[in-house]
Design a protein that fits this description.
Helix content is about 40%, strand content about 10%. It is an alpha+beta fold.
Length: about 200
């Protein structure tokens, strides 16, 4: 019997109707390819563990996402569409947006082998003068606490994407403008979008 987590069942049940078959499919493929995988919840969305982090999946208002922890090292996985949304495959709006079952299972097996061999995820290239993280404005922090999906997206973003939102809100010249930007930021992040998502190749409203 697969090792499942009831919190993942609850997460799928609470997801949008279109997302449920996608999440169930991903879960089924991962368990079939890696019978010893274990489920857990991190940052508000399901993760699959096998000798460390293996992969994760998430649902938003209009799309889903799936990502491999060491995706940069998986042969054949080029991360197309990752600029539009978190994860390795960009926006997943229907099952056909995912690779074929056999291909996806192959990625899972590669990820397993990387963990078995103790290969570490490649470090992100750092600029010569790294920019420190900016403090999150109180208004944004309070709004994110009220929206778990937006908070999960914000926490999963790389520092550069978090900075884009923080700077945009911090630069507001008045409370009305700030509050409007906070509301818009939370709405976009609840959908898994980065601050400048409109300018990403193939972006969809």
């Amino acid at each position: 019997m697969p090792t499942t987590d009831p919190r993942v069942d609850a997460y799928i049940a609470k997801s949008a109707e279109f997302a449920r078959p996608i999440l169930r499919h991903v879960r089924e493929v991962v368990h079939a390819a890696c019978p010893d995988v274990e489920e857990t919840m991190k940052w508000g969305f399901p993760h699959f563990m096998y000798e460390g982090m293996l992969c994760s999946m998430a649902s938003f208002k209009q799309h889903c996402a799936m990502g491999f922890w060491k995706g940069a090292l998986i042969e054949g996985l080029d991360g197309n569409g990752a600029a539009e949304a978190m994860g390795s495959f960009g926006r997943i709006e229907k099952l056909s947006d995912l690779p074929p079952r056999r291909t996806l299972a192959g990625y899972v097996k590669q990820a397993m082998k990387l963990n078995e061999d103790g290969v570490t995820a490649p470090a992100r290239a750092k600029p010569k003068t790294p920019r420190p993280e900016l403090p999150v404005p109180d208004a944004l922090a309070a709004a994110l606490k009220k929206n778990r999906r937006a908070l999960a997206t914000f926490e999963a973003f790389p520092p550069s994407h978090r900075r884009e939102y923080v700077e945009w809100i911090a630069e507001a010249k008045g409370e009305e403008t700030r509050d409007r930007r906070v509301a818009q930021a939370v709405e976009w992040m609840a959908e898994g979008k980065q601050r400048n998502w409109k300018y990403a190749k193939g972006a969809k409203a």
